[in-house]
Amino acid sequence: METSPVAAPRPAAGPYSAVTKRLVHRAREARLAGERAATGPRAEIDASWDRVLRSGVDPGQSTESRLLETDEIEHRRRSSPLGEVMPLLRDGLATIADAVQQIMVVTDDEGRVLWRQGNAAVLRRAKDICLEEGAAWSESTTGTNAIGTALATRTPIQVHSAEHFLRALHTWTCAAAPVRDPRDGSLMGIVDVSGPASTFHPTTLALVGSVAALAESELRNRHLVAIERLRSVAAPILCRLGGRALVVDTHGRLAAVSGMPPVDRLPLPKAMRPGQVWLASLGMCRVEPLPGGWLVRVADGSPDGPPRRVVLDLSRERGLTVRVTGPVGSWSRQLSPRHAELLFALALHREGRTAAELAGDVFGDPTRTVTVRAEISRIRRHLAEVLAHRPYRFGEEVEVEVIQPELPSDLLPRSTAPVVVRTRTAAGAV
């Protein structure tokens, strides 16, 4: 009795099998033609292709990008917290990458390459695709790639061969993971391992993710040690002081506080300096340097008093600002159109406005008090020393000037707030 020949098993369509690569290539070509293939790529790649297509990236374009100048690269390296953990990243990834003919790449939170290390031959080859220091690797510049897509999604991802949007990258494989600041969760940059497509290994992504998590843990431990050291310095100082005072690190993160409720983080000027400093959330303060941070003493009852002049500049629709001038200088802040409307209403009514009156001024609906209170609360985070409440108003000691455009019709031209419309109409009738 004859038996039928056994059919050879079909190759499995695993995540990166030869079958899958062919299917991904077909799906990509169909997408570029404005169609959808019956079998598409993985969901995260599919979503990335959609973003890249909407941004207008040409699949046939070069990977070239304008490199940052050397001094700018050095500045970003010094400013990046990732510089503190580069020895860990080199030990955990670069050595392994070198052994398997790949390279480690570390970028900032914009996708600009700051460091790279690994196999010498691959480093030379990477220059051909502009994977070098100072290059831009966001999705909007280089299409779907592990660095750019991890940057866009804030999640680890591996991108292989034809999953890359640009054809120039189809001979490459890469795996990347974001590194977040453990102190506030903000993105610090991306850690990536890249190499020729022939060097692909399915465990690379897990390795990169683990090392990124290790880097975050190291930064967390360093922060806790630094805060504890600063706290030990601050304790005897705060015991001797009266009034409100805080001790914060150089980024404004709290180490100790006395005489006031604690805050998670104190917004600091970019150019913090000792002496009298105006801080938007506290008013006038006396600042003194400490090892690894600052002692900030709130000037309660200071003879200098609060800022005395506020200039509300509404002369340009795209440049709405408020400037506060005090005894030791001034500072300004850009305004949203809604906040400009509210401050304009308060500038017109120096006697003050209730939440219902402001709701009528801005929305034409006195019942929208909840929205008004929420918006005023946001404004007072930065203008607490010049804005009073119950009713809402500028302080009596504050001089307020409103700079309006030359043409009355140009005053917040898109605004439908009754207080603005009335002013435009009245000025135009003169």
Structure description:
With 430 residues, the chain is of the alpha+beta class. The chain contains twelve helices and 16 strands. It is 36% helix and 21% strand. The strands form four sheets. A five-stranded antiparallel sheet has the order 2-1-5-4-3, with helices on both faces. A five-stranded antiparallel sheet has the order 7-6-10-9-8, covered by helices on one side. Strand 14 (387-388) and strand 15 form a beta hairpin. It is globular, with a radius of gyration of 29 Å.
- Average per-residue pLDDT, rounded, comes to 88
Instruction: List the uncertain runs.
Output: 1-14
Placed side by side, the strands forming the largest sheet appear as 2-1-5-4-3
Into which percentage range does the β-strand content fall? 15-25%
Figure out the total of helices.
Answer: 12
Overall 3D shape: globular
Q: Report the biggest beta sheet as strand number plus sense, adding barrel if it closes.
A: 5 strands, antiparallel
Number-wise, the strands total 16
Output the helix-strand order.
Answer: HHHHEEHHHEEEHEEEEEEEEHHHEEEH
Structural class: alpha+beta
What gyration radius follows from the Cα positions, in whole Å?
Answer: 29 Å
Multimeric state of these chains?
Answer: single chain
Q: What is the percent of helical residues? A: 25-40%
Distance between the termini: 110 Å
Structure at a glance:
This protein is an alpha+beta fold and 430 residues long. The chain is 36% helix and 21% strand. A 5-stranded antiparallel sheet has the order 2-1-5-4-3, sandwiched between helices.
